[in-house]
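This part of the workshop introduces the protein records we will be handling. An example says more than a description, so a record of this kind follows:
>
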Amino acid sequence: MTSKNNTNHQPILSMTGFANSETRFPAGLLLIELRAVNHRYLELNVKIEDSLRQFEPLVREQLQTRLGRGKVECRLSLKSDSASSSKLALNPTMVAQIAQTLKDLNQHFPQAQPVNLVDIFKLPGVLQTEAVDTEAMAESLQQGLSQTIDELIAARQREGEKLKQVLLDRLQGVREQISIVKPLLPQAIQQYQEKLTAKLREAMQADDDRVRQEIVLYVQRTDVDEELARLNSHITEMDRILSVGGAVGKKLDFLMQEMNREANTLGSKSVAIETTQVSMQLKVLIEQMREQIQNIE
């Protein structure tokens, strides 16, 4: 039987994180460091030493493929060690040429002092390093960078779980504020209607029909049922988004704008101090959530 709910739940990632690694490299130890902070888009800052400059396009491509949003700084440097230092070898062709030249010279200058071998080593081309396998270097770099990106994503996921819990806690606070204000509204409106009726009759000396018309108009202007309904709808949608996960930062940021609009309207329509206080508390909670959402991918 096929499940009705096939939604794949994904982790929520923070845009903040750090990871580093050391990878065995043909020319030494490859040191990789990744730092990430929040940003509207993916912005890469690759700092790579000259000996590895040829691999910068490869590094950028791999980072762009694996990461979504965030300002990411990538540092790559090479640390030589005895186990992987390039081995020196004699250039047999050059050595043979020098030997033949010395032999010829010795025939003309038999009394000359023997040549110092150290001086021969200093001659250009006598000693040569083993050829570096560029393909092997590229493969090592890709493996090391992939591992470091994995660690960065894991760090961002751990931070994302913390942010998710903070948002759920604040969202529960929003629910509690709505539950406080909703039972108060009928009584608050009734009390305000009584005061308004008395003032209208005194000021306008109007009949009951005129007073009722004014009250109906005022009640329409102060009715917040729609605002509370929309707030509850936004809460439900936010719960769903957090449950599904993935790259949800922009969606959540839009919801915060909508929730803040409803909280402002609730305050402007307030007919009681309790409603005003709830509106203020809602705006505080929404702003706290918005600040946290800025760090979510």
Observations:
- The longest strand covers residues 28-37.
- The two ends are 35 Å apart (CA to CA).
- Confidence is low (pLDDT under 50) at residues 1-6.
- The longest helix spans residues 134-204.
